Amino acid sequence: MKSTVLRKIVSIVMCFSLLGLAGCVNDKPVDSQPESTSSTTTTTTTTTTTTTTTTTTTTTTTTTTEKSETEASSTTTKPSTTTTTRNPRDEDPNVEKLVALTFDDGPYAPVTDKILDTLAKHGAKATFFVVGDRIDRYQSTVKRASALGCEIASHTWSHKNLTKLTAAQMAEEVNKSVNKIESITGKKVTLVRPPEGGVNDSVKKNVPYPLIMWSVDSMDWKNRNVQKNYNAVMSAVFDGSIILMHDLYPQTADAVAKFVPELMAKGYKFVTVTELMQARGVSMQNGRKYSQARP
Ligand code: NI
User: Which of these, 203, 190, 187, lies nearest to 276 by C-alpha position?
Assistant: First the structure.
């Protein structure tokens, strides 16, 4: 009896830990960590009394060894083979490097426009994975981003986790957003980023677009801090990386204003995801995941 209760307590505690790790905060739709993130959860239980001690350790790493186009299409989990993403080349200002800065969950004019100001000032480009049902409110911002040469792509219509939907629901979430974007920008949408990074075999089969993940997670939705956002990007960026941010928070826009000119001075060129893949000779396939394109 006692041990049953204890086990229950432990499993509840573990559930909360895992929820925390998955970024399941209740205030905002956010993207959880990518599959390349390895998390370690350790639970220690003292059985003599009813005391339960829980220790949670999170390690964030990114994988570099795999070129995105060779990613196995059937596996959804795979061990990360390296824990470092950078090499000396990534620091050499004399080497031209490419990076794709991406923003999810917008548009949100008060923040998106500030980001666009920075991009315009430096001749930089980014990719905006917009949520379809937000577009009407911020049409002019979306048009402006597109006119600046930024790529506007789909983050579904209402930010639903696609792994929980039927094929028909998935199609509606994607198609409705794509049609809306195309009607506003007049340009074809060619990429989808699944909300919360949620991809399974059904998503791969039923979403007829390349699925764009990321290799540098700024954790800006959690940080809400300019310096932390800045550090997260500066410490992990590499040639061919795709950076994940969210154009919902003022601290995100401020961090962008800080690191864009600095990275450009280090030899980084800010391009769209499509430009990055083209430059690296990656021919993207529908229903496959891409998180980087190293030279
Ligand atoms: Ni999202």
Answer: 190
The mean of the pLDDT values for the chain is 81
pLDDT in tens, 245-257: 999 999 999 999 9
Using one digit for the tens of pLDDT, what is the confidence trace for 103-120? Answer: 999 999 999 999 999 999
Assess whether 155 carries a catalytic annotation: no
| CA distances, 28 to each of 9, 31, 104, 255 (Å) | 28, 10, 12, 20
Is-catalytic flag, 104? yes
Tokens of 194: 């699944």
- Count of CA atoms in the C-beta half-sphere (13 A) of 200: 9
Determine the distance separating the centroid of ligand 1 and the alpha carbon of 9, expressed in angstroms: 31
Q: How far is the CA of 26 from the centre of ligand 1 (A)?
A: 13
Residue range 27-49: mean pLDDT, rounded: 38
Burial of 70 (0-12, 13-18, 19+ CB in 10 A): exposed
The answer for residues whose C-beta is within 8 angstroms of residue 82's C-beta and 6 or more apart is 61, 63, 64, 65
